[in-house]
Design a protein that fits this description.
Layout: E1 5-7, H1 14-18, E2 22-24, E3 43-47, E4 53-59, E5 65-71, H2 80-97, E6 102-107, E7 116-121, E8 124-129, H3 132-135, H4 138-149, E9 153-156, H5 161-165, E10 173-177, E11 184-187, E12 190-193, H6 209-217, E13 223-227, H7 235-240, E14 245-250, H8 253-265, E15 272-276, H9 279-288, E16 293-298, H10 310-326, E17 328-338, H11 345-358, E18 361-369, E19 388-396
Helix pairs in contact: 2-4, 9-10, 10-11
Length: 398
């Protein structure tokens, strides 16, 4: 049976023809295709103003991004075989890139599955569904995952604000198998215990893997300050790489408790200190006490979640970087990152330039980083390119 149709307004097909997958509600010609006739998650044909078929999408008439393309083909059947085909392609790339099963398996639009993120933690899959279109077909997804990967457990991580916008529930649950305890992964020659159910996002952040390795490579004999440390993904590899001392700062007591467990798991707890504190307050106090650090890692959570929050978020990034520079030792290294899509590379570049000049420091970039290869970037979808990291060498003013 053919899918129902939505028509776009004149010239609103340009983004899709260039490769993007999103249709915004204000791009739909609602006289020809009233949105209220559709139910959340329905499959639809997307057509241009002149009737040309642009592809098959799922729709949610209640959201700003009201449709997301799953295929350029008409009459797509979105069942088990569809998910298997997309998973096989994504898996083939990851198996070329990694020799162990610890990676992001599905990164939404980049892997042809908008609204879906899957992280692989060895025998366990952590699945985050953020749209009604994928939610409606989750049983087919789970069947495909079980058939292809034979996991011990599949965890559905639903505590995501995007689900609220889609009208979906927020309860996380084990939907298949039994979660092994403890669950240990490996990254950058270190072992980490993962708490999927209570952890942030899917339970781990694979995206900074390469940048963390770069820090470890320069950490020997250095005093390292890891801000917003979460469970130790930056600090523990640095300690293993013979850093003199690593101080992890985070506002979450549960995250720091797990970081301590991970330090013990790697037998480097004697090199590490864990401080429960608001990072802004920690930096202010460190400045007052004349504490200095050779390497500072500044990897905050997204401080600009929506475009309208830009001004306030930009100021927060500026304050953080300026405070960090003030407690950086002579000829020290600042690793400054942002995962906020709405803060561009150019924005962070300018924040670092102006912050250094404000306190009369000479700052240069000696390397840049971004998301790891298991977070591939679709060149037609700029939203998939979100992570930026600057490695800065900082000295006294010239």
């Amino acid at each position: 049976m053919p899918h129902p149709e939505i028509y776009l307004k004149k010239n609103e097909d340009k983004r899709l023809r260039k490769g993007h997958l999103w249709v915004f509600s204000n791009e739909v010609e609602t006289k020809r295709s009233p949105l209220e006739q559709f139910s959340a998650g329905d499959l639809v044909h997307v057509k241009s103003d002149d009737g040309a078929v642009l592809g098959t999408a799922y729709i949610n008439p209640q959201t700003l991004i009201c449709a997301r393309l799953l295929s350029r083909k008409p009459n797509l059947k979105c069942g088990v075989n569809f998910f298997k085909e997309r998973l096989i392609i994504a898996l083939a790339l990851r198996e070329k890139l990694f020799d162990k099963p610890y990676y992001r398996l599905i990164f939404g639009e980049s892997d042809g599955l908008p609204g879906l993120v899957i992280d692989r933690f060895g025998p366990v899959l952590s699945v985050q569904i953020t749209t009604a279109g994928i939610e409606k077909r989750k049983d087919s997804l789970f069947s495909a995952l079980i058939e292809l990967l034979s996991p011990e457990a599949i965890i559905l991580k639903n505590d995501n604000s995007q689900r609220q916008l889609e009208g979906l529930s927020l309860e996380s649950e084990i939907v298949y198998g039994q979660l092994p305890e403890p669950l240990i992964i490996e990254e950058n020659n270190a072992k980490f215990k993962i708490d999927i159910i209570n952890g942030q996002k899917t339970g781990w952040f694979y995206d900074h893997r390469n940048s963390r390795a770069c820090v470890a490579a320069i950490a020997k004999n250095q005093r390292v300050l890891d801000l917003f440390s979460y469970t130790g993904a930056w600090g523990i590899p640095a300690a293993l790489a013979r850093a003199a001392e690593v101080i992890c700062v985070d506002a979450s007591d549960s995250a720091l408790a797990l970081a301590l467990e991970n330090a013990r798991l790697n037998n480097i707890q004697h090199k590490m200190h864990f401080v429960g504190s608001d990072v802004f307050e920690f930096l202010k106090q460190a400045r007052q006490e004349n504490q200095l650090y050779d390497i500072i890692i500044l990897d905050p959570p997204a401080l600009i979640k929506r475009k309208k929050d830009f001004k306030q978020g930009y100021e927060a990034y500026r304050r953080l970087n300026q405070l960090a520079l003030q407690v950086l030792a002579k000829n020290g290294i600042l690793v400054s990152a942002s995962c906020s899509y709405h803060l561009s590379h150019e924005n962070l570049h300018e924040i670092l330039r102006s912050s250094a000049r404000h306190i009369d420091r000479h700052l240069i970039f000696f390397s840049r980083g971004g998301q790891g290869p298991d977070h591939p970037i679709d060149p037609a979808i700029p939203e998939t390119d979100y992570l930026k990291t600057f490695f800065c060498s900082v000295s006294s003013s010239l």
